[in-house]
Specification:
The complex is a heterodimer of chains A (about 375) and B (about 400).
Chain A lengths: L2 H28 L6 E7 L1 E5 L2 E10 L2 E4 L5 E6 L6 E2 L4 E5 L4 H41 L5 H41 L1 E3 L4 E6 L6 E2 L6 E4 L4 E8 L11 E6 L7 E8 L9 E8 L12 E7 L3 E8 L4 E3 L2 E8 L2 E6 L1 E5 L4 E6 L6 E6 L9 E3 L9
Parallel strand pairs in A: 1-24
Antiparallel strand pairs in A: 1-23, 2-17, 3-12, 3-16, 4-11, 5-7, 5-10, 6-9, 7-8, 9-11, 12-15, 13-14, 13-16, 14-15, 17-22, 18-19, 19-20, 21-22
Helix pairs in contact in A: 2-3
Chain B lengths: L3 H8 L1 H39 L3 E4 L13 E2 L2 H6 L4 E16 L5 E10 L16 E2 L8 E5 L9 E4 L2 E9 L10 E5 H9 L3 H13 L11 H10 L3 E2 L1 E6 L5 H12 L2 E4 H12 L1 H32 L1 H9 L4 H30 L11 H27 L10
Parallel strand pairs in B: 4-9, 6-8
Antiparallel strand pairs in B: 1-11, 1-12, 2-10, 3-4, 3-7, 3-11, 5-8, 6-9, 7-8
Helix pairs in contact in B: 1-11, 2-8, 2-9, 2-11, 2-12, 5-6, 9-12, 11-12
Chain lengths: ~375, ~400
């Protein structure tokens, strides 16, 4: 019998070729540009949104004292080093007085000389006064000429003037001495407040200019974070809001703080709003000045509105909206969005109601003609 | 009527099918090669599509930001935003580098780091248009959206330069023109990553400045600090992407930018020209050359297979002739067999190419038009090849059936 044998062969061939044909059909329709786009969908829910702001800041001291001489000179000695705690009024170092001490001594001598001159003038004036008085009495007894009396009175007036002149001279010399002493005391570098030395910029022997800082002292308990937040996402930033500070050295340990003030001036170049954030409790040990910190500022919770993940927002032409998914297929709905939180949730103010089914993730941007295939998820969620 | 070709195929179906499969694998390779070429072009196309821009504004006299390096000031976008017809302007930086993955075993992945303006501008030019997992960047620093092709997962940490970034979202098919996966990070971080020197270089630069008497003058306290600060700041971007208002004329806006803002501008068509005909031109020609050679080799092999299949049956054909079969019938048998072989070959090739494509390291795009063209090419080739076999078959002397 030939027929069954042939049929078996035919069957075997068909068994090979039919799956191949089916596979070809599947491949043609399910891969490449004709394949449906894999998407995930979700239901829009009403949700209370807790927006937050995120920015980068640096640890800074509220008060930084830059201490240096008021006149150019050579540094004589420095008593403190970086890290030393200092008290208000403490002498931290001094400038070389050069000839100032000698000039003070010369001034002292000049003062003594002026005192002697005062004494001399006083003696002359006392004698002149006595002479004038005596000749006045003699004139009354008509035993001297009027001219002599007038001469004696003139001598008294001259002696009075001479005394006044040397007294003023003595006062001037005294004031000069005081000025030199004052200059001398200005050569001492004093701590203006309690603090810690953070910088020692010159060593004894070096010449420094007037106004150049030799030492820098900060008040350690005045640390704050100078925060910069992108202006585009700084809406709502206000004084008094709670904040979390993540120091770069301690990424996993947020420190509580609050916004002390928002600076009235923003940075126009970097397009950032500036603010100061203070620590609720200062960390110990104190973080170094200049350390970078990530700051999250919590804003008050907003009333419940429809909320969508920001991944669901897509663009069709010039409009921004979401893709609704229903039995009728895909439908693009333009929406007006409100605030967003840092976890990627966005308020929808207009265009969507709670309970609507929308596309969240899609393999590529959708178009009204896209065919879609709903999947539970498109990528592994966690590593 | 009984099909002579069918009967003959059934007679030695195993040989026939295996020949078909072998031929199919060869066709599959050819299709994949065409797919590699299409994938290269599509990588460039995807780069343009995903950027969502209508105009690219770059440094004057450069063909940036993809084909050449380009840098312009990051406040140029304000001027551009004010031009009539511009709906959106977004700063963007592109930078191809090795990104370190902080997995237990540290791995490098080559990626194109894209700096985008984060925040409420979802869907702004430069942003990924769609995600497959996670969310868009919300923080102004230290977050990243990466392409799946880089192999990273949500929540993973990436190290770019001295900063660590948390992967918060994943994309698909967001690649550079050379097929490297994209990693999106906030613009300010990207500017730093691109232009900031490493710490050692900064340190050495400071020392050089300190040693330079012009910069470290005793009479001007603070000058050196000011110079150090100015050397480490960066305020440049690689391009500004413009999206036009509906109805705006791209050419008119481009002319305005070129003439008054004095920057280079490319429209979408020009950018595509740059990407496809300049950036990937050589490698595309390389692939095209290889494709042509492969097609020739395939054609030769197909012709040879059909010829040898016919030669195997030379005695049977002689018998057919002896019993008075018409030449037309014999020719039809050979032609039908050749076409059937081509059909099986094409099916096997298409299926194997489709299933092999995802395993290629770079994108392989199998376009239906290519497959269709491939199908007709294969059939034409088989028909052509069968002509030689038919000529041989028709010249067989019927006497061979009894002689031999």
């Amino acid at each position: 019998m030939k027929f069954p044998a042939l049929q078996r062969r035919t069957l075997a061939l068909a068994a090979l070729l039919l799956p191949l044909a089916a596979l070809l059909g599947y491949v043609a329709l399910r891969s490449g540009p004709l394949a449906p786009v894999a998407v995930t969908e979700a239901e829009v829910r009403g949700q209370v949104l807790r927006p937050a702001l995120f920015g980068i800041g640096t640890v800074e001291a509220r008060q930084t004292y830059r201490i240096g001489p008021t006149a150019a000179g050579r540094l004589q000695h420095l008593a403190v080093d970086v890290g030393d705690a200092v008290r208000a009024g403490q002498t931290l170092g001094s400038m070389d007085p050069v000839d100032l001490d000698e000039r003070i001594r010369a001034q002292e001598a000049a003062r003594k000389r002026a005192d002697a001159a005062v004494r001399e003038a006083s003696a002359r004036q006392a004698f002149a006064a006595a002479q004038a008085q005596r000749y006045t009495q003699l004139e009354a007894a008509r035993s001297t000429s009027e001219e002599t009396v007038l001469l004696k009175r003139q001598e008294l007036a001259v002696a009075d003037a001479a005394l006044a002149a040397v007294r003023e001279e003595a006062a001037r010399v005294q004031a000069d001495t005081a000025a030199l002493r004052s200059q001398r005391s200005h050569l001492r570098l004093l701590a203006p407040a309690d603090g810690v030395v953070t910088l020692r910029d010159a060593e004894p022997g070096s010449t420094v200019l007037a106004g150049q800082a030799v030492l820098e002292v900060v008040a350690p308990h005045s640390l704050w974070v100078h925060l910069r937040i992108d202006q585009a996402s700084a809406a709502g930033l206000a004084a008094g809001l709670p904040a979390q500070v993540h120091l770069r050295s301690h990424p996993g340990a947020p420190l509580p703080g609050r916004v002390l003030r928002v600076e009235p001036k923003a940075d126009a170049v970097t397009e950032e709003t500036l603010a100061k954030v203070v620590f609720t409790q200062l960390p110990t040990p104190l973080p170094p000045l200049g350390e970078v910190a990530e700051v999250t500022v919590d804003l008050p919770a907003l009333p419940a509105t429809p909320v969508v993940p920001n991944a669901a927002l897509q663009r069709l032409g010039a409009q921004r909206g979401v893709w609704r998914y229903g039995p009728g297929g895909l439908d693009f709905t333009p929406v007006t969005t409100g605030r967003a939180d840092l976890n990627g949730n966005v308020q929808v103010l207009q265009g969507l109601e709670e309970g609507a089914r929308i596309i969240v993730y899609s393999e590529k941007a959708l178009t009204p003609r896209s065919r879609v295939r709903v999947e539970p998820q498109l990528a592994k969620a966690t590593p | 009527m009984i099909s002579l070709a069918g009967r003959d195929i059934l007679h030695s179906w195993g040989k026939f099918v295996f020949t078909g499969v072998g031929l199919g694998l060869l066709i599959g390779v050819t299709l994949v090669m065409a797919g590699v070429y299409r994938g290269m072009v599509d990588d460039g196309q995807a780069l343009l599509d995903n950027s969502g821009a209508d105009l690219w504004v770059v440094q004057q006299h450069t063909q940036g930001p993809y084909a050449e390096s380009s840098s312009l000031s990051d406040d140029a976008y304000r001027t551009l935003r004010g031009i009539e017809g511009v709906a959106e302007a977004a700063n963007v930086t592109y930078f191809t580098m090795q990104v370190r993955r902080d997995t237990p075993v540290q791995k490098d992945v080559r990626a194109m780091v894209v700096g985008i303006t984060p925040g409420a501008g979802w869907g702004a030019p430069g942003h990924p248009p769609a995600l497959v997992a996670g969310r868009h960047i919300t923080r102004g620093h230290y977050e990243a959206v990466a392409d799946m092709a880089s192999g990273v997962a949500l929540g993973e940490r990436l190290t770019i330069r001295r900063n660590q970034y948390t992967v918060v979202g994943l994309t698909r098919r967001m690649v550079s023109s050379s097929g490297d996966p994209m990693v999106f990070i906030p613009l300010k971080d990207a500017q730093q990553a691109q232009f900031l020197k490493d710490n050692d270089a900064i340190h050495r630069q400071r020392q050089r400045t300190a040693a330079n008497p012009a910069f470290n003058r005793p009479g001007v306290p603070g000058l050196r600090e000011a110079i150090d600060a100015s050397q480490t700041s960066s305020s440049t971007v690689n391009a500004v992407l413009l999206r036009l208002a509906p109805g705006a004329d791209a050419q008119a806006v481009a002319d305005t930018v070129r003439r008054y803002v004095r920057l280079g501008v490319y429209t979408r068509a020009q950018m595509q020209e740059i990407l496809v005909s300049k950036l990937i031109a050589t490698s595309a020609r390389q692939i095209g050359m290889f494709l042509a050679i492969l097609a020739l080799v395939s054609a030769a092999i197909v012709a040879f297979i059909i010829y040898s299949l016919t030669m195997d049956k030379i005695r049977e054909i002689a018998v057919l002739k002896l019993i008075g079969t018409k030449n037309r019938t014999i020719a039809a048998m050979i032609l039908q067999q050749a076409l059937a072989l081509g059909l099986i070959g094409f099916a096997v090739g298409k299926v194997s190419a489709t299933f092999a494509a995802p395993f290629f390291p770079k994108y392989v795009l199998l376009v239906p038009q290519d497959s269709l063209a491939g199908f007709f090419a294969v059939q034409a080739l088989c028909a052509l090849a069968s002509v030689i076999a038919i000529r041989v078959a028709l010249r067989i002397d019927p006497a061979e059936a009894i002689g031999g």
